[in-house]
Amino acid sequence: MHKTIAQLAMAGTMAMLVAPALGHEVGAWAGASAAPAERSEVAVAEFEGKAYVIGDYNGATDLLIYDMASDHWSVGAPFPYPVHHTAAAAYKGIVYVFGGYINGWEASSNVWAYIPDKDIWEPRASIPTPRGAAAAAVVDGKIHVISGSSTGRGNTRAHEVYDPLDDSWTAAAPVPTARDHLSVVAVDGKLVVVGGRVDGDPGRNLDVNQIYDPVTDSWSEGAPLPTPRSGAAAAALDGEVYVMGGESNTKVFNEVEAYGLSANSWTEHAPLPTARHGFGAGTFEGKIYTMTGSPVVGGGKSGVVEVYTPGAE
């Protein structure tokens, strides 16, 4: 079962990191207990108040588990092999991990399921299109895995849907704009697919924002992301999609921008205290928890955890 990690008690880690009020920027950030290991280029899946941090650019395999309610970390069974730039989503108490890069930059078709009650990993039906740097989200009991890159870093428009109940795959309408290092978030029964880069090049970041309706199996265009970027973390809270951090070929971003699907518009929020990319986020009781990631362009890693409260001053 999980190996408990003692909470870090350093004052700096727990200090409040309140962003300055800058007119239209709203909300406040605070520090939380650092992860027990530094990571980047991870996938994060969350359910029932826990966030599961999978993969690592530098080859670490331990599963990091963060209890957002108690601000406490533990470690689960290691992933079966080193993987980075993988995609993950949770459904009915199981964490599913799709593809990613293995053996350097080889795009994988492997799918694994983590069973928390047993602390084990089990294989599942392979994804039809091998890829890394894709993104995944759950709508109506199905997990949608969208775009990403094949071996060699070329993008794919693949949009494939996994049914956890019968361990099977079906094809859905391809994403209009192929990309990698993108964000995919489920909100109001639809998927918001935002940002990313072309063929693995952070110098070719995108502001594209495309909306998928699973009822009609069709795509529409949304208002573009104000700050084009890739490798961002994203999460849905109170009907809005928050896009946080990311990188280009010259800088790491701290921007936080939220998209309202019904209004088709973006608002600016208080920036990340620690600019990062290759990290993930989860939500719990009205707050957004951001975990790990690299504070420098390209490689790098951290154990940073920062928590956002949208309505705080």
Automatic annotation (TrEMBL):
What SMART domains is this protein classified in?
Answer: Kelch (SM00612)
* Record-given protein name: Ring canal kelch-like protein
Annotated signal sequence range: 1-23
Q: Which UniProt keywords apply?
A: Kelch repeat, Repeat, Signal
- What organism does this protein naturally occur in? Devosia yakushimensis
Q: Which Pfam families match?
A: Kelch_1 (PF01344), Kelch_KLHDC2_KLHL20_DRC7 (PF24681)
